[in-house]
From TrEMBL:
A GO term, aspect molecular function: transmembrane transporter activity
InterPro entries named in the record: MFS (IPR011701), MFS_dom (IPR020846), MFS_trans_sf (IPR036259)
Protein name: Major facilitator superfamily MFS_1
Keyword Transmembrane helix: yes
Keywords: Membrane, Plasmid, Transmembrane, Transmembrane helix
The keyword Lipoprotein is assigned to this record: no
Pfam families: MFS_1
Transmembrane segments: 44-62, 69-87, 93-114, 135-154, 160-179, 216-240, 252-271, 278-301, 368-391
Chain segments carrying region Disordered: 429-452
Domain Major facilitator superfamily (MFS) profile: 1-396
Organism lineage string: Bacteria, Pseudomonadati, Pseudomonadota, Betaproteobacteria, Burkholderiales
Length: 452
């Protein structure tokens, strides 16, 4: 019988295209049909705004429901529907609705994957398993980018969207292979509460932690400014190289994605080691520094071979952030029952910068040229660095304070997920619950009899 972590990795692999959406290929597709850069940026921004507004409800939904697999199914279905709309129509509002659907799907997948991983693995091994998830996710992006480049060159850009629909369907099939009993509903929301039959009320004031946690606010501010400069870089660079050198834009976009995703994959492999050796503060600081390097390199090297250094910087920053940010938020909020809501809140503030990035970048590029746009976007990192350096010490202090609390909290015993599976009928559905009860009994024995 397949271990539950295997389909989890498969979901991460196929979720790559669900989370990425149409990506730079949509910009190329619309440009070929006479759309201007500022109009393309506007329609992408409108879709992204809806996705941004969905981040907090998505996190709250993942915390509230015990049907987290169904959330992934819904995200895959939205991706399939959006691909069909883009295929049959190139008008403003249908494309906007399609981008809205893909933005909601991508936004929902983030907290859903974190909730599934936390519910299956627990807090102690979360960063290790989530790092593996990210490796699978980047591998999926690489495969999707290569196939998109081939399809775009051979059959045309519309078939790239058909590939996205196929990935959405495969994502649905993969998540249905995860046994429902493999996801502990209380641990999935960040509660140290082992009995799934018992209620797990979360105090109303636990919602206030999102506003009263200064480390979360500092993190959100730094990521918002970073995303404002970073998100539009890839589609704009693809358009700049294609326009200047008259190359096949779909192949340029695919090369951009493949290079960055290969570097992201390597960064994700070593991310958890880097976090344990250097700490969250230093790792995230390194990711913020990559933005100005990327922007100035893009401004100076608008040649096909310039793709390599530009996307290496993107891969380093995004690859490390993809593991470090969810792990940091989980450590700060574990025990509140609002881990996924917190993840959604941080993603929402980050998305606020990301959704404005295409409009800002497209406007600057349309009026002042691509090099000026790249330099302006890269300069926005000054806000991120100022916030992180001046206020980031609160992150380190908060994590040091929480470390002792986390060690005392109950956790899942996931040894059953990493040894040879039990082949008895129904064993996979009971494995996590059984080891969780076993771990809880051992914890109770260590703490002595209940005298209440």
């Amino acid at each position: 019988m397949v271990k539950p972590t295997i389909p989890l990795l498969a979901v991460s692999f196929f979720a790559a295209d669900v989370q990425a959406g149409a990506g730079p290929f949509l910009g190329i597709f619309l440009q070929a049909r006479g759309w201007t850069p500022d109009t393309i940026g506007t329609v992408m921004t409108l879709g992204a705004i809806v996705g941004m507004l969905a981040t907090l409800p998505a996190g709250a939904l993942v915390d509230a429901t015990s049907h987290r697999r169904a959330i992934v199914v819904g995200a895959g279905a939205l991706t399939i529907a959006a691909a069909w709309v883009i295929w049959v129509s190139q008008h403003f509002w249908p494309i906007t609705l399609a981008l809205t659907a893909t933005a909601i799907a991508g936004t929902t997948m983030g907290p859903a994957m974190i909730g599934l991983t936390l519910g299956m693995i627990g807090k102690r091994n979360f960063d290790r398993q989530y790092g593996r998830n990210q490796v699978a996710n980047h591998a999926g992006n690489i495969v999707a980018a290569v196939l998109s480049g081939v399809l775009g060159w051979w059959l045309g850009i519309p078939y790239v969207f058909a590939l996205g629909a196929a990935f959405g369907l495969a994502c649905i099939g993969s998540v249905l292979l995860i046994p429902p009993g493999a996801v502990h509903r209380h641990f999935a929301r960040g509660l140290a509460h082992r009995d799934e039959k018992e209620p797990s009320p979360v105090p109303v004031d636990s919602m206030r932690i999102l506003l009263h946690s200064r480390p979360l606010l500092v993190l959100s501010l730094a990521l918002a400014a970073f995303s404002l400069g970073n998100s539009a870089m890839l589609p704009l660079y693809s358009l700049a190289v294609a326009a200047t050198h008259h190359r096949d834009a779909s192949q340029i976009a695919a090369a951009n994605i493949v290079i960055s995703q290969v570097v992201m994959l390597i960064a994700a492999v070593y991310a958890s080691r880097a976090i344990r050796r250097w700490g969250f503060w230093w790792v995230i600081l390194a990711t913020l520094i990559t933005l100005p390097l990327r922007g100035f390199t893009a401004a100076l090297l608008d040649t096909p071979w310039g793709i390599l250094p530009v996307q290496i910087f993107d891969g380093l920053g995004s690859g490390l952030q993809g593991v470090a940010i969810p792990a940091l938020v989980m450590h700060l909020l574990h025990g509140t029952g609002r881990v996924n809501l917190g993840q959604g809140a941080v993603q929402g503030v980050e998305a606020a910068g990301a959704c404005l990035s295409p409009m800002l970048g497209g406007w600057i590029a349309n009026r002042f040229g691509f090099p000026v746009a790249f330099m302006a976007l890269g300069s926005l990192t000054a806000i991120s660095l100022a916030a992180w350096i001046v206020l980031g010490s609160q992150i380190r202090q908060a994590f040091d304070t929480r470390r002792g609390e986390l060690e005392g909290m109950e956790d899942l015993d996931v040894s059953a997920l990493f040894r040879e599976p039990d082949v008895r009928p129904g064993a996979s559905r009971r494995s996590v619950r059984a080891v969780c009860r076993s771990h809880g009994a051992r914890s109770a024995n260590r703490s002595g009899p209940n005298t209440s």
